[in-house]
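Work Package 3 (structural annotation) set out to generate three-dimensional models for the target panel prioritized at the project kickoff. During this period the team completed the workflow that converts sequence records into discrete structure tokens, so that structures can be stored uniformly alongside our sequence database. As a representative example, we reproduce one entry of 516 residues exactly as it appears in the project archive.
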Amino acid sequence: MLSQVWSSATHGVEALPVEIETNVASGMRGLSVVGLPRAAVRESFDRVRAALENNSIPVEWGRITINLAPADVPKESAAFDLPMAVGWVAASTDLVGESVLDQYWLTGELALDGTVRPVNGVLPMAMKAREEGCEGVLVPAENAPEAAVVEGLTVYPVETITQAFDILEEPTGTSAPSPHTTDLDAIYERAGQYSRDLSDVRGQENVKRALEVAAAGGHNALMVGPPGSGKTMLARRVPTILPPLSSDEALETTKIHSVSGELQSEHGLLATRPFRAPHHTISDAGLCGGGTHPSPGEISLAHNGVLFLDELPEFQRRVLEVLRQPMEEGQITISRAQSTVTYPARFMLIASMNPCPCGHLNDPKRECVCTPSQVQRYLGKISGPLMDRIDLHVEVAPVDFEEMSAKRGGESSATVRERVVAARSRQEERFAEAETTHCNAQMGAQGVQVHCDLDEAGTNLLRTASDRLGLSARGYTRILKVARTVADLEGAERVRPEHVSEAIQYRSLDRDWWNG
């Protein structure tokens, strides 16, 4: 007898439909699983057999052939356990009808006692199932919240293999669990509540202004200052002033976290912009993604959010250089012998560092003990081309006692976020016809030419700065983009000299310290 059951495999952050065909023929007992199964899939049959036996679910033995189609796509997840079990039973008995199997997709790893364990990549599967016209999905109970964020799809949470058969025999029966539903409005409402606030930071008004500009235009920023000046504290509050995630951005971000196994099951949907802060010992594969079977790295997990690199010169230079291409293109392509995958990686980079190895260069209260050669060697760990891709360079000074003891910390995140959202709205209108451009930082050369036109005074000011700082073509373009953002925060239609002047001050570290 033959049965067909539907599931999916992930390729990058997308799901591909997989048909599990099970044929049970008479003859000597035997098993073959075909369709490029990896080790986890080849081991599935032993888990499936034990789960069925321990739950007294009858099956027919013989020559069993399981085909995972399409045959040219590698299958490497234990998520095929549940659909393989259902397919074997359907091919052996009339417990499950073919008409029912055509309506539902299944996924889940089986324990030997029949418990259904959670798996990765359930959200992409649910989205693909809806796209293919499927009525519903059967997923592990812990994965049900993320699948339920897909509207127009019935999601059944499955805790045991017997529950799966109860649903397939009679989806509306009393023994079947109720479909899982998710209140998206409540999720977005909770996402707007932050435990941190920009007003927690005392002083540092110039740095707060720079971070507001960075958030308004989606620009990368580097903070340079001595230890204890508040760099990390400021960086962790950047997500609180960014615009809320749109529904499309939330789904796209959640898919990445679902595939990588980083999604917390009780959330279902990642409705808050991610903030990733990897340690400086991270490898290039950990940062950008990779491995024998490629998986998303930190830059993809920070997609639509903030990637914070603390103590920037402590990262391996080879690791930092890998950032250059995704910072420009908003995605990272990982090539292996058997496959090539592309992960989205449009993040906002916030980095921080000390001005020297001891951390006290230019500190008015503490003396620096580093030699000029030590300082240059320390700063030389960051290449000029990478610095060119960081739009704003901000010096963070130590906070004095009066500022630290002040009862008020300045504007709240909500107040700053209102201005940022207004500036982003202007940019969305400006780039309404551009599919890949949503903010000023993403403008291409043509967009800069059209939207960052300067008058004579602004042109002369930028020419003088370019000569003094020795700006590269990329640095010149970034000043124009930042100036456009400053103008948007002010609500100005055209970039004026004062906007250019503020943008220039955020590039003042270019050639004072770096010689690339």
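The mean pLDDT is 90.
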